[in-house]
C-alpha cells in the first residue's frame, strides 16, 4: 500500500524503565507489532483447549442445546487448565515483547529460536533472560503495555476506534 505524503513502516517509541538503586533508567526502543503478529503468536504458542468432561445434567436428564447435542461441562475451570492458560499467555507476551525490542540496537538475547524444539521453549528462554537481567514483574508488565500502546492496541485506542466506527449514543445500546 502507498499513501501520498506518508512514509511506510511501523512506529517506534522510546521508554524509560527506572532501575532504582542508583543504576539509572533503562532506555529501550519498542517497535510496533505488524498486522498479523498476534495471530502468529497464537499459532506459535496456542492456548489450551478445554476438554469435555461430562454432559451437564438436570434432574437426572442430560441438558441438550437447540440442535439436540448434549451441553458439556469442560475442564476450563480446573487449576491445571488455568495454569496452562497463564503459561500460554506469558509465552505469547514474551514473544510480543521480544519482537517489539528486535529493532533496538542496544538489546540482544543469547537465545536463538533455531536452538529450541518449540516456540514455547524459546519464549521461556527469552523470559529467563529478561528475569536474569533483573527486570521486575512490573517492568515486564510495562513492556507489554507499552508494546500494545505503540502498536495502537491499548484499550483507550481501541475504544476510540470502536467509537469512531460504531458510535454509541445511549448506555442501553451497549447491552447484548
List the helices and strands and how they pair.
Layout: E1 12-17, E2 26-31, H1 37-44, E3 52-55, E4 57-58, E5 61-62, E6 72-74, H2 79-101, H3 119-133, H4 137-150, H5 155-165
Antiparallel strand pairs: 1-2, 3-6, 4-5
Helix pairs in contact: 2-3, 2-4
Number of helices: 5
Radius of gyration from CA coordinates: 22 Å
Mean pLDDT score, rounded?
Answer: 87
* Main beta sheet: 2 strands, antiparallel
Secondary-structure element pattern, one letter each: EEHEEEEHHHH
Low-confidence stretches: none
Query: In whole angstroms, how far apart are the ends?
Result: 37 Å
Keywords:
176 residues; alpha+beta; two-stranded antiparallel sheet; 5 helices; 6 strands; extended
Amino acid at each position: 500500500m502507498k499513501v501520498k505524503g506518508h512514509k511506510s513502516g511501523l512506529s517506534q517509541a522510546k521508554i524509560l524503565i527506572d532501575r532504582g538503586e542508583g543504576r539509572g533508567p533503562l532506555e529501550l526502543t519498542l517497535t510496533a507489532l505488524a498486522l498479523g503478529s498476534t495471530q502468529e503468536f497464537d499459532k506459535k504458542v496456542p492456548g489450551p483447549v478445554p476438554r469435555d468432561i461430562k454432559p451437564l445434567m438436570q434432574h437426572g436428564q442430560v441438558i441438550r442445546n437447540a440442535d439436540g447435542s448434549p451441553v458439556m461441562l469442560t475442564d476450563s475451570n480446573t487449576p491445571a487448565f488455568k495454569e496452562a492458560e497463564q503459561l500460554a499467555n506469558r509465552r505469547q507476551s514474551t514473544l510480543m515483547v521480544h519482537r517489539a525490542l528486535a529493532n533496538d540496537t542496544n538489546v540482544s538475547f543469547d537465545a536463538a529460536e533455531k536452538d529450541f524444539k518449540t516456540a514455547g521453549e524459546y519464549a521461556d528462554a527469552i523470559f529467563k533472560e529478561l528475569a536474569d537481567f533483573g527486570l521486575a514483574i512490573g517492568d515486564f508488565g510495562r513492556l507489554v503495555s507499552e508494546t500494545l500502546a505503540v502498536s495502537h492496541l491499548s484499550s483507550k485506542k481501541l475504544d476510540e476506534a470502536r467509537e469512531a466506527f460504531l458510535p454509541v449514543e445511549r448506555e442501553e445500546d451497549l447491552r447484548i
